[in-house]
Amino acid sequence: xxxxVASPSDNPQLLEFYxxxxxxxxxxxxxxxxxxxFGPYRTESNQYQTYILKDxxxxxxxxxxxxxxxxxxxxxxxxxxxxxxxxxxxxxxAILEWGKHFVxxxxxxxxxxxxxxxxxxxxxxxxxxxxxxxxxxxxxxxLPRYYGYRRFNLVTIHxxxxxxxxxxxxxxxxxxxxxxxxxxxxxxxxxxxxKNLATYWDSYGFFKQLQRWRGLKIEDFLIAFDxxxxxxxCCAPWSSDGIQEFIPLEYSLKAHNFRQFLxxxxxxxxxxxxxxxxxxxxLEENLQFQYLTHLFADNEDIFEALLWAAFNRARSKDxxxxxxxxxxxxxxxxxxxxxxxxxxxxxxxVPPDREAPEFLNPSNEAPVSLEGFFV
Length: 375
Hints:
By secondary structure, the chain is of the alpha+beta class. The chain is 26% helix and 32% strand. It has a domain at 2-150 and 346-355: Aminopeptidase (3-Layer(aba) Sandwich), CATH 3.40.630.30. It contains nine helices and 14 strands. A twelve-stranded mixed β-sheet has the order 1-3-4-5-6-14-7-13-12-10-9-8, sandwiched between helices. Strands 2-11 form a two-stranded antiparallel ribbon. The chain starts with a strand and ends in a 25-residue tail after the last strand.
């Protein structure tokens, strides 16, 4: 077996191999990248590198990608890499070969791109991944150690209970435009710079990353204003259709009951439905939702007012998805909304020959900048 850096010519093989690994949890999902395996990476960064492990028949047996970013970490610009899409076939030889090559891949990325730290996001419902990376049984293998950095929830908003009311019904929420663009960018940069792992902190950085979000424009932002016409919150609803879609394969009993409740609630005008599993439809239909990107609010009521605006303006079958850090109580899902949460962990991957970095100290509780699409 041999390992190599992937090129565009490997795209068909990567797509086929990647789709063979469903995301496990209360809802089993197949991830469809719509013909372009590297599409989500280009949304996240201009720099990325994918390694693939191939056997003697030139078949893909493993892959891992690294997304390189310059972020603000402890008030200093720092180059980091996110480890994404680690997939290895179930053949014992492939697993052993990948174990030999993974740390050298980290070293090569570190040397080529000047990466100081590596991070990875794990779904806390995927016990196999947690046991393999965070709690390995064999500590003698030369694999990176995973140190917990932050816990966060991927929150989904599916509807409102009939007693729900907008806490700020008279708040002005307007779309972005040329007249408020400068004030919006100033607000975004100010709020984002208060977080660790922020990818922009000035107008140049903001426009640079906005260009990567396919189809997202200033006019798509929903901006909340107070009585003095100051910006106090914003979000940008965005759909990843055509870039990365999620096809439900099977619902657990808990998820099935939730889907049935949403189906019933839709008849009463409370909720929006979840897509049927593919085995029921006899075809592959993706989940219909929008990410709330660039989400900031000065308090809980402003956040809920933005939820009302985004939900009312979304397509009739779309639910909403956003990230909420465990210590970010402003973005905690409101109790009068029909919602769910999927717990995730942000981990720092430390090569076996390095010490754990100082920023992992538990006293460092600054929130981190995360977008749901990158989870």
